[in-house]
Amino acid sequence: MSTSQKAIIFSINGEEYGLKLDDVISVEFTQDIESNPNFPPYIKGIKRARGEMVPVIDLKEVFYDEKSDADEGNRLIIVRTNDLPMSLSVQEVKEMIDIPNHALKQVSLIDNHNKRFLSGVANINGRLIVIIDPSSFIGWLEGMEIVKNYIHEQKQNV
Question: pTM (2 decimals)?
Answer without folding.
Answer: 0.89
